[in-house]
Amino acid sequence: MTHHDVVVVGAGLAGLAAARELAIHGVDVQVFEAADASGGRVRSDFVDGFTLDRGFQLYNPAYPEAARVLDHEALNLHPLTRGMDIVRSTSTGRAVLRLADPRSPGNWHTSALSRAAGTITGKARFAAYARTVARLSGHQFDERVDEPAQVALARAGVDATMIDHVIRPFLTGVFLEPHLMTSRRFMDVVLASFVKGTPSLPRAGMQAIPDQLHDALPAGTVHLATPVHRLTPASIETDSGTITASVVIVATDATHASALLEEAGLTTELNTVTNSVTTWYHAVATTSLPEPLARGRSVITVPDKRSGPVINTVPLTYAVPSYSPDGQILISSSTLGVDDSTEVAQAVQGHLQFLYGAETSGWELVAHYPIHDALPSMRGPLTVAESGEHGPVILAGDHCATASIQGAMISGRHAADAAFRRLGVVRPDDRRIAV
What we know:
Layout: E1 2-9, H1 13-24, E2 29-32, E3 44-47, E4 50-53, H2 64-69, H3 72-75, E5 77-79, E6 84-90, E7 93-99, H4 120-134, H5 149-155, H6 160-175, H7 184-196, E8 200-202, H8 208-215, E9 222-223, E10 230-232, E11 235-238, E12 241-250, H9 254-263, E13 274-285, E14 300-303, E15 310-315, E16 328-336, H10 342-356, E17 364-376, E18 389-390, E19 393-395, H11 405-423
Helix pairs in contact: 1-8, 1-11, 4-7, 5-7
């Protein structure tokens, strides 16, 4: 039987972030992961020259905790185009509203002024709302009345047209729920991050983020393909035997964490409700395109209403050429739920034809990823900036904070802080990074 100061169950972003913080301050920490690689839900596959993230994920360099921990230069981040194309069906055919960030004048289009995207007053009120939340941090988000996102937007004076045909289509892809019933506190965090930074992708795929955290740990810290079968407040059990520890951090998803705690006789109420998504990757040869998709921009394209299964789509190669071989464009598209049947695959291809205004019958389906527990549900009541300490076992994960990379990593820091207190470790640097 071996003993360590801290054992961490799970090598996702939260577990790796906690282990990194502990190791920096000299704590003997070991991480045990059931999968064959680190990253949890943030993983990438590399197939025939394509980089396929397991689910459409983006990294925002404005995330404060992630920016503090990660080496952005080494990640070689490539930003997507700021803005959104909204495709709608009119009496005269297909029409596209091209919305852009006011700070990106080169990407502006007169269609953004259309009343189909909301009134001028509504747009101004939404911009004012976004500027207000961008000035918030940490517990300030929790001081605002929690209510469904749709209610908060309407209360702020955003008109129904803008909510239904602009904001809802965009946030459906962020929240993975189509009704804007997500907590306004989480919406505020999301909007603040979009105001402050541009969603981006690492050159080597999203896998580069957990790989960087993993590589920062002392050799031998992370034990892959080593599932934890049982735990107590002072030990874990694996196929190799029992490992004791002064502190145990459970950094798995909420469902697995709940099962481990229940078997250990520990009662902790966790948010085990999740939203699901399927990500579809298509490849198309540039020679088969009469003109570039989305005018050659890596802009997110959405339908203004549910005209088909696709909730958003983006040509990733325009942002990160390394995501596909030369002469190929890799397109990522998302559908709610995990139905990946042949019928849905055909419906996706047909819907992409409408969204891009291009013939898609020759597009190759490179891969698809049905992800059952893609994101923890962020319905209220929600506390954004809570501690990582939950009873005798410390918990970490985005289900403890916000459903984001920032949420996972800040929860890892909170868990490390709790472990330091239990171990009696006094650190010279007592910085705190807000949500």
